[in-house]
Amino acid sequence: MRLTLLSLFSILIFFSKTLQAQGLCDRGGGGFTIDKTEGCAPMTIRVTNTVPNPILVGYDANFNGRSPQIAPGPVFTYSLPGLYTVLQQGALSSGQFYACKTVQVFETRVITPQYSSCGGGKIFLSLIDDAILKAYDEVKIEWGDGKTEIWKKGSPLVIEHNYADVSSSPTALLTGLYVGKGCAEGRATSLPITFQQAQLNDIAIKSVEMRGDGTLRINYQGISGVYTDISYSTNGSNYTVAGRRSSGGLQPFDVKNMATSQVYQVKLSSEDLCSGKNDSPVYSSMTLTGRSEDGQNILTWSKYPDAADFTSYDLLRDGTVIKTFTSINDITYTDEDVQCGSFSEYQVVAKIKDVTSTSAPVGVKAEIASPKPIKDAAVTVDGDRSVTIKANVPGAGPNSTYDLTIEKAEAGATLFKKIITLFNQSEYSDPDVKTNELSYCYKISYTNSCGQKVPSSEPMCTILLTKNLTTLNWTTELPILAGASSYDVIQAGSSTAEEVIPVQMNSNYTIKVNAQSDLEYNFQVRANSTPGGFESLSNIINYKRSAGVFVPQAFSPNGDGYNDILEAKSNQLQSFNFSVMNRWGEVIFHSEDIATGWDGTINGANAPVGSYVYKMTFVDDINQTVEKSGTFMLLR
């Protein structure tokens, strides 16, 4: 049965939304009661159906005459004041039925009072004539000195009261009242009273700003309860009142539909309830114009008319100050730091003591006769298989675009080939390299957003570091476009901290190690450049203090191209002496060149398969004499 009722309720809601909702209250057939039809917000009601044996019944507690929103009820709460229609909608076996009733919910929110103290115990209380005040019939004012006054709708909004005792600070209570209605009163609001008269001089303009849409915004400090007129003029004589306020605190006031090319004078005129009057100092808005001429943006602004309190002008580009002018007569500036196609937004801010006046923003798109070449760029080794190319593209920024083209060649070659074109990117890692074997050279060029192309730069070449015994050598072809100012050798030991060794402009360095040094080091060279802050790193060379010599345990001189020669392997020897002997101790091969090995023959004939002995003596790179012997197999 429960499932059936839920289904019927869903069907009822569906049909009610599809029917023409207007006139549902007139269809009749329904009936219900409400426990109360008037009251104070928030107000909760309970509805009771009086139709016998309904299949289903629901209610829309805030029926708007259009699409009903049916809920089962029976309890509904109204948070806001208003006149509400309660719609009943239900179903009998014979069809649907409807009924409507109205509910009046009265305002209970607090009213908004302000006051001015006029000296002694005299004050003027002002009621803000808003929708909340209009809802009440009367306002009960309990002054806090034992006296009570009733304000009636239609009476003047300003009420005078005199306190006999000014030694304390009373608190007035104000409560909205209803006469002959279902709600007696709203919530009370308290208003602490002090007897210090407001200083009209405290009402002051803090800033003037002309916005791009023609809105003149005046930010000012107001005093609660003091009426202030905000006025403007185009000639400094005839002022137009743009608005009046009596609220306190720092606040903005906008004057719409103004001309951004016009200078306006603005001022505040204040009058309190005690008949005190005051005009603020006059401040002027600023204007700014801009144009592009031969790759430069030329800005001109209005001269601030009052030199008495003038401090400076700040010129802003894209929200950042690019120049400050302390002379009131400096009203033009040429911005050369722009690139073709870049769009910049400028504003000028005049500072008058602690008040600022800001112009509307002006956008300028730079047009350039000829683009600037790239002056700051570098290439650096990032590993055995990676070279990174970096560049500072002139004029690159959030408002400009460019294409950066990179060309490449092996060091010494004259033919460069394009490897990539980047869009709005100034850094690229080239993976197609072997940095331990070769130096690579790169050229870069760019095309700006105006379609102007800069010729390719001078080649920049990676630093190739090589080792000959204890001497490090490196290539010095230009690794940094602005030129290298010095080189450093970076030495990292296996158990000691990294050490940076300055070598000025030398292209070689002798490794300084001894028997107490680490067993193994990594070396890398760094080129430095002051302009642009670029640096370039070489490949890494590994150095072992004790030279190792490797002799294989077998070789097979059968002419197949694999292991046909018995060779000793090492690259850190100063001298080398190597001999091979047969099982009877006879020397059958001798060499003093590590690059010359035994081919497995004796006097031109193949030596027999079997075991042989080698002996060698060598001097390593730190002048240690080492003797070593061993055996190996000759296989065929």
Automatic annotation (TrEMBL):
This is Gliding motility-associated C-terminal domain-containing protein. It holds the Pfam family CHU_C. Keywords: Signal. It comes from Dyadobacter psychrophilus. Residues 1-21 form the signal peptide.
